[in-house]
Amino acid sequence: MAKTSRIAATRDVLARIIQRLQTLFESIEIFLKKVSQILLRGTGIIICIGGLSATTGWLLASLNPDLLGPTWSLGVWLVIAGVFALVVGILALTSQYLLRIGMIGQYGILFFLLGAMVLMAGAFAVNLFILPWMAKLFTQFPNLGSILQSGFNTVQNGVNSTTSTVVNTGSDVCNKISNPFGGNNSCSTNSTPTVPSQKVPSLGVDDLLTKIGLPSIGTLGTLGLLFLSGAPLAPGCLIMGIVFLVAGVRPRSALLLLIAAAFLNLGGQFLLHLAFLGPLLGALLFLSLAWLGFSLWSPWKFSLFSRVIKSANA
Questions:
Q1: Helical packing angle, 233-247 and 252-267, nearest 10°
Q2: For the whole model, what pTM was predicted?
Q3: Tell me: the pLDDT tens digits for 111-140?
Q4: Which of 9, 68, 104, 175 gets the highest tally of CB atoms within 10 A of its CB?
Q5: Where are the alpha helices (DSSP H) in 64-143?
Q6: What is the domain range of residue 100?
C-alpha cells in the first residue's frame, strides 16, 4: 500500500514537472515567435527605406542629368545608400528562411549580392568620379585641340627665334674675329628652323578617353545609367523573388510584383534614353523592393483591409 502511494506521488511529481516544462517551452515558443515577428518587421523597414532611397536617387539623377549639378551627386549617393540598405535587409530576410531556401536559393541570393556590389562600385567610380571629371575638364577647356595647337605654335616660334638669334650672334662674333686677320670669307648666317611646323591633330572627348584607356563618353554615359537604374540588381531580384516564393515568404503578391518588375527592368534597359519610359522602368524595380519591405513590415494592415472588404461585401 505504501509502495503504491509512493509511486502515485512520484507520478504526480513527474506530471507537474512535465506540465511546467510544457508551459516553459510554450512560453519560449511564443517569445521566439514575437522576436521573429519583430525581426521580420525590422527587416521590412530596412528594405522599404532602401527601396525608397534608391528610387528617389534614380529619379533625381535621371530627370536632371547635370553631371556638375547638386542633384546629380545627391542622387548617386542616395542610390548607393539605398542599395546598401537593401543588401542588409535581404541578408536579414535570408537568415530567417535559410533552411527553406536550400543550396540553390543561397546561390540565387549570392547572385543578388554580386549585382549589388557591381552596382555600388560602378556607380561610385563612373557616376561620382569619371563622368563629372570629364564634364568639368571639357567645360573648362571647350576647345582643347585649339589650345594645344596654340601652345605648340608658341613653343615653336620661341625655339626658332631663340635659335636664329644665337646663330646670328655667333656669325657676328665670327666675322669680327676673322676680318681683322685678313679673312675674306664671311661666316654663315643662315639658320634652319629647329622645330618644323606641325599641325596638332584634333582632340575630342573620345580621343582623350582612348589615350588614357577608358571607353568613349557615350559608353560611359550608358554605363552610368545602367548602374543607377538597377540593371545589375535585376537578374538577382528575378532569381531571389522565385527563391522566396518557393520558400513561403509572404505576401506572395509582393514577390510576384518584384519578379515582374525585375523582368521589365531587364527589357527596359534599351529604353533608358526615352524621356518618360526610362525613368519609369528604372524606378519600378526599386519601388517593388520598397513595397516588399512595406508588406513585410505591416502585414496586419493587409489582413485588416481584407476584413473590411469582406464585411462590405457581406
A1: 160
A2: 0.68
A3: 899 999 989 988 888 888 877 877 776 666
A4: 175
A5: 70-96, 98-122, 131-140
A6: 38-135+207-302
